[in-house]
């Protein structure tokens, strides 16, 4: 995929994702998530708390979350192209998506994870 | 310790420490910056797309790693490591080998805007950690961020990007690495995202613009805090040997002037210059109209140099090497053996191939590579179409200057237009030249002949005489020019005709003189005869007179003798009478 040409269309895409009907079997898909943080700063803690809360709420029993400290694992951060921290990488289900920030904007996090907000 | 007393000293020391420079190893750039980029500080390298930012940055990094023992980190935001490796392989750098030797780290930072969603507050600590990790892994002293502006387009929040960038530059300074940050040229500012705000130490601007269909790359040092630097725009060249920049380092006219002489290749021409030829390291201009023999004179010079075992570099802008060799063979100069031996290199290209500066840079580079003692530029007027008069003059000034510094004797042929007075050449560089040979056409009747003037030759006695310039099958020959009865110059058959006429006149004059001589001789003989007669008469008279005088004297002598006798006898003088009496008294 030519990613360069789609630069700047993220906002449009996130809107489209929000409007899209849930994936065929969203309730069944397993999630593999990876959260990169930089040390135990308040921001890192906030991010960890936020994602844990969301996962428990929406993905109970069907997710794997890995938290990586870039200070401890700089090589991993390099491999995963981490620039901003915190960064949450949704590896599965496809497509891979990156969410940067402390994940406190819940609406955006859910949209990014292709999850419907619960009523 | 008296603190205040030491403040000045301390500041001085700190300043000299902070002014340490990291040599770039790039021909020209170190001269411009007075030794390199500010060591341990960031430098901004900006310019529009395709002007060579990445290349220059990588070159500085690689040279640092290879030549100065300063390992480097190249953090690329636009090209991945594979692309970088391929691109630089074509410039002669094996990046992978350097990576393997732990002299270089290539890190490709991929920012996929489409995959990124901002969900709250963040910072760019990830970038810091990566960079720090890369620097520490090889003990890097130099860092390139190419181009960090990708952060602005790749991240959703420009405010955070700005704040983090400021922090990054501070961090780089603390790390003490010499950093090069590239930035895309903006419309109103140096860089699109105003990076110059953050990097205040050194800003280098690259430019690639087209003038008159010629593209030239230029470099300018916009700012270099705490250091003097060249401020003009300097052209630079990217070729298989990397980057070369062309500063005018020696505009001070400080080159050494030697006294060694170099033959012009034409013995008679050497004679016109005190019998020794040009000064080594001088610049010679040969100007003349089309077909006046400029290239032939240049060929003599080149041939002479290679015969002495010197190296000659010939820049041809109108003929191909084989054409030059063929044409010169027709006048008995064979340049082919020198080309085969490698002592003569003919570098032929269309002058319109590139811009003035590019030519200058090319000539520089080739001269440096080949190391000739003698250079021919044939013709220098080929550059005339490539710029304004001022630009050409500036370019040639630099060229002449460069040759002088290199102690290269350079011969420039220069085409002069049509029948106009040829002492104003198309490119007004005559004043730069040390020697100036002017070839002119003389038209007599249906004939054109060539004459050569030595208009000037600095620092040596030289002939003020015009010579006839002949192209024979043994090369150039110079003959004395004939000045006709009306003072006009004559050459060719007109000269031959006049010579014949004069010979006839000489003959006639000779005969006249002969008869005059005979007349004179006759007169002389007649006169001598008369003289002889007069002499004879005189002799006779003299003899006669002598006889008379002789008799007269004899008579007078006799009379005097008688008188003495008589006086004695009369004893008139007693004193005189004693003596005669004495014998009688004794006797």
Model description:
The complex is a heterodimer of chains A (119) and B (587). With 119 residues, chain A is α+β, with helices and mostly antiparallel strands. Chain A is 34% helix and 20% strand. Chain A has four helices and four strands, in the order H-E-H-E-H-E-E-H. With 587 residues, chain B is of the alpha/beta class. Helices cover 42% and strands 23% of the residues of chain B. In chain B, the strands form five sheets. A nine-stranded mixed sheet of chain B has the order 5-4-7-8-3-9-10-11-12, with helices on both faces. The termini of chain B are far apart. The A-B interface holds A 3, 6-10, 13-14, 36, 38, 43, 46-47, 50, 70-71, 74-75, 77-78, 81-88, 95-105, 108-109, 111-112 and B 107, 109-127, 129-130, 132-134, 151, 153-156.
Topology at a glance:
The complex is a heterodimer of chains A (119) and B (587).
Chain A: H1 10-19, E1 31-37, H2 42-58, E2 63-69, H3 74-79, E3 87-92, E4 97-100, H4 106-112
Parallel strand pairs in A: 1-2
Antiparallel strand pairs in A: 1-3, 3-4
Chain B: H1 3-18, E1 21-22, H2 29-32, E2 37-38, E3 42-47, H3 53-67, E4 72-76, H4 81-89, H5 95-100, E5 104-108, E6 116-118, H6 125-138, E7 142-146, H7 150-154, H8 158-175, E8 178-184, E9 202-211, E10 214-224, E11 233-239, E12 242-245, E13 261-262, H9 267-272, E14 278-279, E15 283-288, H10 294-307, E16 312-316, H11 321-329, H12 336-341, E17 344-348, H13 356-370, E18 374-378, H14 389-405, E19 409-415, E20 435-444, E21 447-457, E22 467-472, E23 475-480, E24 482-483, E25 489-490, H15 492-570, H16 574-586
